[in-house]
Amino acid sequence: MNNTTPHMLLEIRETPTVVSNLLNVDQARYQNLARAMRDHNPDFAVTIARGTSDHAANFLKYALETQLGLVTASSSPSVITAYDTKLRLKKSVVIAISQSGQSPDVVNSLRAAREAGALTVALVNQEHSPLEEVAEFVLPMLAGEELAVAATKSFVASLVAPLQVIANLSQDAALQTALQNLPAALSATLELEESAVHRSERYRYAEAMVSLARGIHYPIAQETALKLKETCVLQTEAFSSAEFAHGPIILVEPGFPVIAFQARDATAPGTLERYQDLASRGAELILIGHDTPEIPAATRLSTPATGHRLTDPIVAIVAAYLFAGHLSLVKGFNPDSPRSLKKVTRTL
Questions:
Q1: Which domain holds residue 207?
Q2: What is the pTM of this model?
Q3: Backbone φ and ψ of 79, nearest 5°
């Protein structure tokens, strides 16, 4: 490792330690929130987030719905902050996610939710932030300072922290075991970095891509598309692999690069069929996740099985981050300093 290594790549390499720290802190914080959720007995959940954090919120939606059957919606902060609407949230749990905890629209939306009687939770990386001050419960990401503008290790932390509460509520022994084994799985995933270095060269002159997944991996496809925009100035759009067939598939022509996330869960047969169809149309597949031989891919970043459908996407995003970071370097960019972006964005 040398002094010229971008912070983004250094921070990706910290993810096993970040997750280990989250798993080894006093569990009372997670248990207390789980107890409060049982007592509050919400009819639905609402998430508040922007950008990368909104992809974490989308992942949380899948986790809450598949594990607890708790219908989860994404809030539009402008409904409260611009239109001054009073929402009926008394029977809900409202979860705000923000690495910095400083964006006024997110803070004000969570404050309004608490005033409306919701059980409120803040998921933050920066201690003593305004968002933390308005929430009843706080789940710290414990990712440490993040110097790269593009969030990586804090995104991983924002997936893992609430899973510990969900594992407590659902009493899912397989999920609890998978979480304990996750640092080792992430360490194994980091061994893909050499492959990411080698394969990124192939896409030096790519001008556009799509990022596809289904189900719980879909927020990972969204986050990957954002990182490729931010760090590679590469027009990349994320689609559900099911929705992609309803119009956007017209984008595909011979040689068009498609990032294909393949899960090990119930969505796998459907994505297998979709990816085989895309390959037959001449698409060049970049397969991330479960190494499925039946999928003809030009590039493979095969991630280890983690033992649960909710933890497999976490190793997949680390593999995608490695690919994005090294593609940025190949294209001559600095992944730490995307043009026109800054670390903390405040919206009203």
A1: 186-330
A2: 0.95
A3: -60, -35
